[in-house]
Amino acid sequence: HALRLGAWDYLRKPVDKLELLKNTISRAFERSQLRMENRRYQADLERMVAAKTAELKASELRLQTMADFAYDWECWISPQGEVIYTSPSCKRITGYSTAEFQSQPDLMLAIVHPEDRTQVAAHYREMAAQGDRCHLDFRIVSRTGETRWISHNCRPVYDEEGRFLGRRMSNRDITRRKRYEGDLEKQQTELLEKSSNLELANHALKAMLDHREIERQSIEASILANLKRHVFPYTELLAEMNLGPKAHAYLQIIKANIEELITPMNASLSPAYQSLTPGETAVADLVRLGKGTKEIERLQGISASTVAIHRNKIRKKLGLLNSKTNLQTYL
Fold first, then answer.
1. What local confidence, expressed as pLDDT, does residue 133 receive?
2. pLDDT confidence of residue 117
3. Would you say 148 and 139 are in contact if contact means Cβ atoms under 8 Å apart?
4. Apex CA 189: angle with CA 184 and CA 192, to 5°?
5. Does a cis peptide bond (omega within 30 degrees of 0) precede residue 14?
6. Angle CA(261)–CA(214)–CA(260) in degrees, nearest 5?
7. pTM higher than 0.85 for the full model?
8. Considering only CA atoms, which of 235, 236, 232, 210 is closest in space to residue 223?
């Protein structure tokens, strides 16, 4: 009856053998000691479990807080394509809540822009095949109908034993960056177009200035040739005449003024042309007009040998001596 009530042992009285009493008491002490140690061990184990549980709860809270308050849209997709976890930031980016994504696994592909859906669907199929980490930019259409650009990064997830647990995805809204890139590309295109137009305008302006320069040089050469043909011969004749001091002074003033006027013209002409004398210039002009030696002889009132001398000097000063170049064509 005592054993049924919880006693560990019993002895009959009177106790004849003290050794039996000693052994019974020793076993009771041992059993009591084991029971106390077991209670202490259980209490320590409970404290350890409580501490580990609190530590795990704190770690879980930190991880949950980091995941839930992540600015980017974070997801964990199972090998079967089910949404195990999606961060609340999905609503800020897409307009759809966490519960909607978890209850509608096809929603992630349904919100992709129609023009990008084929590419993203192929990526999701490859993702299910435990591919390596990858990156993809694509567009989505939010609940409000707004088109947004998403920078998508994902990588496979494995447990400690190497079993494939799905993929972790991180989606970032890069709409503003894409808009800036588009504006920058548009500005670059406009700048290139303006640069091309400016280059064409510069070419046209240069051609016009070159043409003006050629015209100016032609006009200066014509004026200088006319002066040498129609003015200088007569000033030379007047200088040889027996003029009075006053007339001679006026003649010197005229020659000085003419020289001052034609100095800029002489600076722009070839030194070979500047070296021609008035007589040579007159002969050169007649040769340029296609006049022969006899006609030049008649028009200038000089001999044929003088014309030949002038022609030879002209060729020499123009660098045509001992050359087969036709003087009229060159002039």
1. 78
2. 92
3. yes
4. 125
5. yes
6. 5
7. no
8. 232
* Total number of residues shown for the chain: 331
Angle at Cα 63 formed by Cα 59 and Cα 66, nearest 5°?
140
Predicted confidence (pLDDT) per residue in 109-142, tens digit: 999 999 999 998 888 877 656 567 788 999 999 9
From 29-33, 62-66, 173-177, the region with the lowest mean pLDDT: 62-66
Cα separation, 29 vs 42, in Å, equals: 20
The tokens for 196 are: 């091309």
| Stretch among 84-88, 235-239, 324-328 having the lowest mean pLDDT | 235-239
Q: Cβ distance 154 to 169 under 8 Å?
A: yes
For residues 61, 67, 70, 72, the Cα torsion angle rounded to the nearest 10 degrees is: 180
Residue 173 has pLDDT above 60, yes or no: yes
Q: In angstroms, what CA-CA distances link 105 with 76, 111, 124, 153?
A: 12, 11, 12, 19
Report the distance separating Cα 87 and Cα 67, nearest Å.
6
| pLDDT number for residue 267 | 56
Distance CA 328, CA 290 (A): 7
List pLDDT tens digits, range 179-223: 898 888 888 888 999 998 998 898 888 888 877 877 777 787 778
Distance CA 163, CA 207 (A): 75
- Evaluate if residue 274 carries a pLDDT over 70: no
Residue 127 CB: number of other CB atoms within 10 A? Answer: 20
Both tokens of 27, joined, read: 């076993």
